[in-house]
Amino acid sequence: MKYNGLTGKVVTPGDPEYDLARQEYNETIDAYPAIIVYCMNPCDVANAILWSREHGFRLRVRSGGHNYEGYSTGTDKLVIDTSCMNGMKVNNANDTVEIQAGLRLLPLYERLYQFGYTFPGGTCPTVAISGLVLGGGIGLSTRYLGLTTDSLIEAEMVDAWGNQLTANHCCNPELFWALRGAGGGNFGVVTSYKFQLLKKVNHITLIRLRWDNNIPARIQFLRTWQDWLPCLDRRLSAFGGIYKLGAWVNAFFYGQPQDARQILAPLLHIPGITLEYIESVPFIDAINMIGADYPRRDAFQQVGRFVYRPFRQDELENLIYIMDNAPSNRNSSLRVYSLGGAVRDTETNATAFYYRQANDIMAITSSWESKEEAPLHEEWVKTSFNYVYTITRGSYVNFPYNQTPNYEYNYYGEHIRRLMHIKKEYDPHNIFSFPQSIKPPS
Q1: If I label 298, which of 68, 96, 208, 290 is the partner at 20 to 30 A Cα–Cα?
Q2: pLDDT digits 0-9 by tens, 190-222
Q3: Residue from 276, 261, 271 nearest 224 by CA
Q4: Rg of the chain taking only CA atoms, in angstroms
């Protein structure tokens, strides 16, 4: 087949770099795209969209390749890859930054730190900005600075006809509303973002707590976490969880260590703590220390649900039972990600991100070394999800799970009807589709 009309770098099966190019962050994703187009600018994106329509290829859109279910790729699909579009421009005069779609988080953090800024991004250093911001975006600054999408003030998108659109509060405002929480691959290919930078910072307090080989700490941690979180100082954001043998917490505090110790007192009183790190460090060092926990690639499955209420004692015991039956001592876990604080400063209907009033996200995750292990881990995730589903409300779209029932409502809540009408306006022929995409109303 000839690829006249495609621009950028075109990779197809048989090319030396194809096997590397088709890889996703999640090693379980084993798709074989027909064509991968590495776009260098919006014109390359537009050409790929128009070429795919002319030649009958379904599209997928990829920036960092971290979609947990591999919805950014697909066998026999044309993959528009924006990872080569990775520039950024900081404007000190008005505290804004323009970021291209493929920029990864670590170089973003590093460049902004040179100018003295923090940023409300995630913790995995190789995630690209697109998938993060378009689904909402959580991290260890969320309670202080809001979701990643809350700082977004403008986006540039190529639509289904190859037109380059600007979306902000004044221009294409409905599209802009949708992109802040429901934009990942649904309406077009977003090529760049403009963010308002909110805080300048040098040092923060990095917190790392561990209860290793401490089985009793697990239920104490879950009980303490849910009592501690509702009144938590918004300057502190935390990720934590339990595994078969213990519990842990990672957190950022935008203040001094002595104040952090007072705030953390309920957690520090859980007996048997094996690591207690509460130190003031340069912001970029905190980013690197947390980022070092992430593998280059991993084989895993993870699903996240929103928690709105404290769990009863019997529900906590059921969660411990789930953990006791996990397939791995270390690589299977129930994780919690703090919300509240600045997330609730934005009204629920102000953006497409629906679950702003949740207390936190509970995630079920398991990873494995060999393909032979996968079914056991996947079955544990499914069984765990079926229970956690009954005590939670709504699913986080950036932690997608292919077993989620009524996924449209679970990801977008009451916003789904409005999103479907926006889809009809900007992509009536459903050019941008994947297994759990938003579909236009029939």
Answers
A1: 208
A2: 999 999 998 889 999 999 999 999 999 999 999
A3: 271
A4: 21
Token readout for 368 is: 């494995």
Q: Which of 380, 267, 280 is nearest to 333 (CA)?
A: 380
Q: How far is CA 288 from CA 6, 28, 431, in A?
A: 38, 26, 38
Phi, psi of 202 (to 5 degrees): -115, -65
Distance CA 400, CA 284 (A): 29
Q: Rounded to whole angstroms, how far apart are CA atoms 127 and 9? A: 21
- 90 Rama class: left (phi>0) / alpha (psi -120 to 50) / beta: beta
Give the CA-trace dihedral at 123, 117, 196, 127, to 10 degrees.
-20
Q: Are 90 and 158 in contact (CB under 8 A)?
A: no
**Of 36, 51, 81, 114, residue with least CA distance to 283:** 114
CA angle 415, 238, 227 (to 5 degrees): 85
DSSP, collapsed to helix, strand or coil, labels residue 12 as coil
Give 10-residue mean pLDDT values along the chain (442 residues).
89 97 98 98 98 97 97 98 98 97 98 96 98 98 98 98 98 98 97 94 97 98 98 98 98 98 98 98 98 96 98 98 97 98 98 98 98 98 98 98 98 98 98 98 88
| Token pair in block for residue 352 | 């497409």
SS percent in the chain: helix, strand, coil, step 5: 35, 25, 45
Alpha carbon separation from 45 to 28, 242, 399 (Å, rounded): 27, 43, 26
Q: What is the DSSP letter of 329?
A: S
> Model-level pTM?
0.97
In this structure, the number of other CB atoms found within 10 A of the CB of residue 239 comes to 22
Residue 50 sits at φ, ψ, to 5 deg, of -65, -40
Question: How far apart, in whole angstroms, are the C-alpha atoms of residue 39 and residue 339?
Answer: 35
Six-digit token string for 326: 């996990």
Q: Which residues pair with 44 in a beta bridge?
A: none
